[in-house]
Design a protein that fits this description.
single chain, mainly alpha, two-stranded antiparallel sheet, two-stranded parallel sheet, 7 helices, 41% helix, globular
């Protein structure tokens, strides 16, 4: 029953959040227009429910890679000072409310990862795509980038199997707490990256 109700709650919550956060949205977009040479937003293909691809929308926190420079999204050497602040308080995630309204994402669910990871998941890890991906999720409130990939996927699949209204409410409250007191943004094992690239289960 909740799975049917969740879509309505997602749209309602996303619209309300966009209205409430519109001052932050506008100010951030203007700042990034200046910092990123007229490019405030970042778009990238990500797998959603049932591995259907969609274009995720985020605030652009990294400058464009220069010729011959490492262009991986996992490397934070290209993150601007403004972008670092935006990431710290998860402001870069606000545009994904548009993805929620469009039906690409949910407020709560496993985070949508890179398309090239699809071929690397085992059968259990693939279950994370049985639901819409979320702006926040069980893995995010359990440690975010401080977790290993296996830990992340274990939390993601556990959420898929146990989702409920009260679990989503708990995750939302814990997400707010982590925004107020940021932690787990960087991975302690990653040497300058927010999270090392997932290379499979070998």
């Amino acid at each position: 029953m909740y799975k049917l109700l969740k879509r309505f709650l997602d749209v309602f919550a996303a619209i309300c959040a966009l209205v409430l956060l519109s001052p932050i949205f506008i100010i951030t977009a203007i700042c990034l227009l200046i910092v990123n040479n007229g490019k405030p937003f970042f778009y990238q293909q990500r797998p959603g429910k049932n591995e259907k691809l969609f274009s995720i929308i985020k605030f652009k926190t990294m400058r464009d890679a220069k010729k011959g420079e490492e262009s991986s999204l996992h490397n934070v050497s290209r993150v601007t000072k403004v972008g670092s602040f935006i990431r710290k308080y998860s402001i870069d995630e606000i545009p994904q409310l548009i993805n929620v309204i469009k039906g690409d994402m949910s407020i709560i669910g496993p985070r949508p990862l890179l398309v090239n990871y699809l071929k690397l998941y085992n059968n259990e890890q693939k279950k994370r795509h049985n639901v819409r991906p979320g702006i926040s999720g069980w893995a995010q409130v359990k440690g975010r980038n401080a977790l290993s990939w296996n830990e992340k996927f274990t939390y993601d699949v556990w959420y898929v199997n146990n989702q409920s209204f009260f679990l989503d409410l708990k995750i939302i409250l814990l997400t707010v707490k982590k925004i107020i007191k940021p932690e787990g943004i960087n991975n302690s094992d990653s040497d300058g990256t927010t999270m090392p690239e997932f290379k499979g289960n070998n």
